[in-house]
Amino acid sequence: MGSEILINVTRGETRVALLEGGQVVEFYVERKRDASLVGNIFKGKVVKILPGMQSAFVDIGLEKAAFLYVADIKADTDEYAPFFEEEEKENTLGGVIPKRCRSEMTIEEIIQEGQEFLVQVSKDPIGSKGARVTSYITLPGRYLVLMPNVEHVGISRRISDEEERNRLKELVERIKPAGFGLIIRTASEDSTEEDIQKDLQFLLLLWENLAEKKDRVPARGLLYSDLDLVFRSVRDLMSQDVERLIIDSAEEYSRIIDFVKTYFPKLLDKIELYEEAEPLFDAFGIELDISRAVGRRVWLKSGGYIVVDQTEAMTVIDVNTGKFVGKEGLEDTILKTNLEAVKEIAYQIRLRNLGGIIIIDFIDMDKSENRDKLFSAFTEAMKKDRAKNTIFHISELGLIQMTRKRVRESLGRTLSTTCPYCEGKGFVKSPDTLCYEILRTIKKLARHGSQKIIITAHPVVAEMLSDEEMLGIEDVESKYGVKVMIRADNKMHQENYEVGAL
């Protein structure tokens, strides 16, 4: 079974699911009030340079200033190999970068406070961090990515056929205009020269319009907004493996048809309108997969399970044997659980869009050949992932460390919000802990001569003070000659309490 794209559209939300073999492998959500900024181009103004961090804050008109690293001024295409040559070259900011190696230059030598130039959002604001921007503009089409002011031709590593890679690179080098770089996208595989020429002409026209507009727009202004999620799905997800795209909105279906007729006519016969009474995602069983994607624990068929814990800095995934006891030796049981977990972990990383640092704690194995087998299985499972990732060999402790490019918030952070009760900690102080805190507090007050102490606490804590910890209260009363009163307030947070003295 080939791949399918399902698009569910409601008034304020668009959801896109990419299916492979009938299973959801990638899921995207975009809401009108907080649509993604990735790909948008602004005329920014440098408001502060941080020499100690070799970075700068750039005002692009958002609530928080965007963050610009010095590396994002030099290049943003490491995946396709360095493209800067040694001769002097005019950079995107309008100045000439000298022959001296760019890695030796500081950010203060490249930009100054108050300077205005074009920047493109490369990462959405995540958590408490503002957007990340780059001064190297890239304009993605279906077959190509245009890089103004860069002399380079790169090709997607996902095109594996060497003969096809050579054909495409020769074709693009022949038609590439001077002063521009091009990246050949995965969708270019088996495409014709006419297809690629049309894509290039469209991107060149788009850049020409941007270049004209940048002089008229004041700083903090938006010059270009990337396509919405529906159109991005057509442009970025409609690979040769995709058999059909199904959408449940007649209005959006008409928009897609017009878009595809204009730019990608070969895709027309793959677009379908869903008109059944049963909701689209229910009909394909998508809702169940989504609910699993935000859960902390994921069960394996054998009875083992994995636990996914996401923090702001990293994600930790733990593998456990659970109910699986195996039929042979311990090492064999552990290997089978780990190998089963490999497939599920690779799937969950892609589905949940986990990014940044990821540490996977597999169950430790004694035999080195088993660890090698596990590592090979995991790297193979991650090959299907479209996001750039780097995987380090399994350690003696059974850990695999990896990084995965993070552009947008993970699915869990998109669909969920911080728990208002525990404030994201995942736990609250126990009633026992709170009782002993209160006892220590009333002792301090009693020693300072208070005659009457009033405790107001959550009913669970108040009940424990009045029952199990009553002897502690009575000890304070008899030792210091003070009267202690306990009041329950069911409107209070369990961790909060008030101790007043009269």
TrEMBL record:
| EC number annotated for this UniProt entry | 3.1.4.-
Q: State if RNA-binding is listed as a keyword.
A: yes
Domain annotation RNase E/G thioredoxin-like: ranges: 418-499
Please give the InterPro entries that the UniProt record associates with this protein: NA-bd_OB-fold, RNA-bd_AU-1/RNase_E/G, RNase_E/G, RNase_E_G_thioredoxin-like
Q: Which residues form a coiled coil?
A: none
Xref: Pfam families: RNase_E_G (PF10150), RNase_E_G_Thio (PF20833)
A single GO CC term for this protein reads: cytoplasm
Q: What class of enzyme is it?
A: hydrolase
GO MF terms listed in the record are:
hydrolase activity; metal ion binding; RNA binding; RNA nuclease activity
Q: Where is the RNA-binding protein AU-1/Ribonuclease E/G domain?
A: 138-407
What does the UniProt keyword field contain? Cytoplasm, Hydrolase, Magnesium, Metal-binding, Nuclease, RNA-binding
The GO annotation for biological process reads: rRNA processing
Cofactor(s) in the UniProt record: Mg(2+)
Q: Which NCBIfam families match?
A: RNaseEG
Q: What is this protein called?
A: Ribonuclease G
Which organism does this record belong to?
Candidatus Sulfobium mesophilum
By which gene is this protein encoded?
A: rng
